[in-house]
Design a protein that fits this description.
InterPro entries: TPR-like_helical_dom_sf, TPR_2, TPR_rpt
Largest sheet: none
Keywords: Hydrolase, Protease, Repeat, TPR repeat
Structural class: mainly alpha
Protein name: Beta-barrel assembly-enhancing protease
Number of helices: 7
GO molecular function: peptidase activity
Number of strands: 0
Length: about 120
Amino acid sequence: MPEHAGRTPETDVIDFRAAEQLLAARDPRGAVKLLDRVIAAHPENTAARLLRARAFFAAAQLRPAELEFTIVLEREPDNAFAHFALARTYERSGKSDQALRHFRLAAALDPRPQYVKAARFDS
């Protein structure tokens, strides 16, 4: 029997909201566990994938974070936050060239001060 059998849309919304709370409470691994079930039931849910990517990043699970942010960007190439977060993931992984590319994409899509500063356009 699949893990998501017997789940309802309401259950998935509750799990998603609980995962947000766990991430805010600095329990990224707990958030990932809840989001695994949501994504198993709804693999197309980009918001859940983005939240799971953030949770992986917070748990210092950089490779899974990178994969999730990449999936989000395949679906939403104009998501400035996802570019910025992927850049931070690359930065923590020591992949500075890839990081700079995504910092610049984030800043080009949304000129928030932190995105522009990270993009280092003046260098």
